[in-house]
Fold these 3 entries.
Entry 1:
Amino acid sequence: MAILGRFFNHKTPPTPVPDALQIGAQIVPLLLAHHPRARRYLLRLRPDGTARVTIPRHGTIAAGKDFALRNIGWLETQLHQLAARPKIPAVWQPGTEILFRGEPVRLETDAAGAICFGLERIKISAPSADLRPAIQKHLRQLAAQELPARVRELAAAHGVEVTCVSVRNQKTRWGSCSRRGTISLNWRLLQTPVTVRDYIILHELAHRRQMNHSEKFWQEVMRLCPDYLAAERWLKQHAKLLR
């Protein structure tokens, strides 16, 4: 979640300046970063618990830190909400719940020792104490089959030209779009509801008409996906379960 304004162009990442904030008994890392297309100061609490201030082109580091200090109460509320969100276990075992197509599903073993969740069944030749690598490999294979087909379906429906679609293990992005028309998607979209998956795809298709995060871009997103804010909220609320 963010307070005040938007972060406009994700194509040119700024160099952040590290600092810290004291919030109650907690020390919160603070990153202050200029962005040439930002129109105003923007404060976000990232999923890792770091506060980030985006500083507009003619802003200053000092004013950015002051902006964060004036919104300590908001940050404290966000920290409490972040701590209350469920976290995905580091090790996946039978009984662990994961997200699959937007729903929590429990990992189970059948009589033959295969791992089952939802309608999926994975044979594991060498059982391991951590099922996560095998399950994530299976999810990536499913994503590679399903996501490109959905991109081309939506692109055709909206008259958008796409040259190539790739599925990646992106750590900080749900998707990206190059000027040549290549769309890359995070395989973890397979864990999200179809409405959220489609929003990310439509977001990237909107970049084929506006290669920026300007007001015109967001107008295009609204045209393609009128309920996109609900999808963004879902992603923020479930960020810790999608790593």
Note: Confidence is low (pLDDT under 50) at residues 5-14.
Entry 2:
Amino acid sequence: MTPRERVLAALNHRQPDRVPVDFGGHRSSGIAAIAYAKFRRALGLPQRAIRVYDPIQQLAIVDEDVLDRLGIDTIELGRGFAQGDEHWAAWTLPDGTPCQMPAWAMPERGDGQWLLRAQSGRVVGRMPDGALYFEQCYWPYLEHDDLERLPEALADTIWVAMRTPPGPLVAGQYGDAVLTEGARQLRQRSDRAILALFGGNLLEIGQFLYRNDNFLMLLAGNPRRAHEFLDRLLEIHLANLERFLRLVGPWIDVIVFGDDLGMQKGPQMSRRMYQEFFKPRHAQMWRRAKELADVKVMLHCCGGVRPLLPDLIEAGLDAINPVQISCTGMEPAGLKRDFGHQLTFWGGGCDTHFVLPNGTPEQIRAHVKQELEILAPGGGFVFQQVHNVLANVPPENLLAMFAAVKE
């Protein structure tokens, strides 16, 4: 099978020739730039510039030579854009490693820390000295919401302001044609399954705007206003979805939505609240995506979300990621038994909470093989470690993880 055929077989619950593997195919299956520099050296690959395409999470672009060496079956649509040196600027990672950042998302120094600014000039993120990631520091609706100016408010949140490639520089300079052409060329030169990051977040956008505590209180205490907000947000998402899939739909295989609905011990909300506020809107977006393009719908959704899986499946979900197996209710055997015939588990292949950063290579090999024995039979599984590889993961542990998959 080609990598694309392998991934699509798994998504269609057919046994592929081997387990498909994702590494860096989206913003939650990648690797921190600090760890990536060490991993390249451990692989014995030539030194090259480390490009940090996600400034907030400090994630590195996984280069083609690494994808080839590890037999990776996926690639992110963003790899078709911002390839020229003019789109990148020199920076230094917190551990002193030289790197390149997107020219449109360069941090600046201020108040003894690194800052990220939105196009409005407002500081929306900060990384204190000694930290490894940027954190949100401004919530547009913290004190007052104005739904008539929702697009402007969105632009002043860190996750919207700090765009990954293609980014505002490319899209703004060349317009819609560059999006279609970049996607088409990526499809022509790669036989990997192409993942397109869309987002379409509902709960999380509310939390980015109001702050987590305030938005949860809005849902519980003022449901009418919460519905008004979510209706307006859905209008924006659907309009963006129409344009996005019109431009890149023919060239992609999986569209990735996002909404972290879970916590360590279970969902952030009751099932009833999910059904009232989010399920109908998720269903509308996912149905429209499949009407516009021949794509599978994946949701990046952290946490213990087992109680919500029946509703997510009914809403039209094909695959869930990252399958956070260290959370309550997310035991792989139970998930595979109860939902494996309806849902593809894109993740859960190696626990990044405890095992990958702290285990020995031998422990990691045994752990990964156990997860594969549970999740791989019959398709419906794409190997990915649970979320991004963080900066403290030893390279020998990563080597052990991928060796176990290959074995």
Note: DSSP finds 17 helices and 15 strands in the chain.
Entry 3:
Amino acid sequence: MKKRAYPLTITLALLTLVFLRAGGGQPQETQTYVKQEAGLTIPSVDAIVARMEQAQAENRAQSCAYTVTRDYKVYGKKKDATKAHVIAVVNYVPPNLKRYAIRKSVGSAVGVTMIRKVLDKESQLAKDSSLTYISRENYDFRFSGEEVVSGHRCYVLELTPKRKNFNLLQGKIVVNAESYMIQRVEGQPVVSPSWWVRDVTILLHYGDVNGIWLLTTSELGVKVRILGRLTMTMVASDAIYKLADGQPPPAGR
């Protein structure tokens, strides 16, 4: 069983990559624009990406220590039949310390183990996540339209990885036209994680929760040989507790 579960836990760990951190050099501001529509000016792709990277850099510089509760579930083909349910408290102290503690854990051993592996991987990736940055260092971008998300005008950019790497996605991002923060990430790993899994899909939603920009919901679907189709979802509580500067989070497993 462990041999079957291990590749899947690596795949699920993609959910916890720190996609919102900008990498590469300093953003190069530009004044060029691609078009005007309905009285609204749409910046060029270079301008959107540069401002996105700058917004993310500023967000990291202003980040504070916090704790948030997450609700994880693993399903099979039917979403009304939960295979595993875990409630975890995640603590973050900038710039790179993240730990968790399990508050509830029920269901199949395989499902619970997968969720724990995700949380373990997130703690590891928090120490160095440069390879996962959505930035010009890792991706080429193409403007593909606009959307309205929760009442906010957003730009949609297609992502094309600059190299074949399991940590990079082929997909798209949705960028808030006012704050230039990423509100949604969706796509597939550009490289299949292993022979055991295929048809991997990832959907991540971010938002402002009590003054902190963080992952609010996520969904990962994957088809596993022998086990079939599995889906893991996560919903973060809207109750965020800010910790005192420098206060270490409690240890967790």
Note: Residues 1-12, 14-33 have pLDDT under 50 and may be disordered.
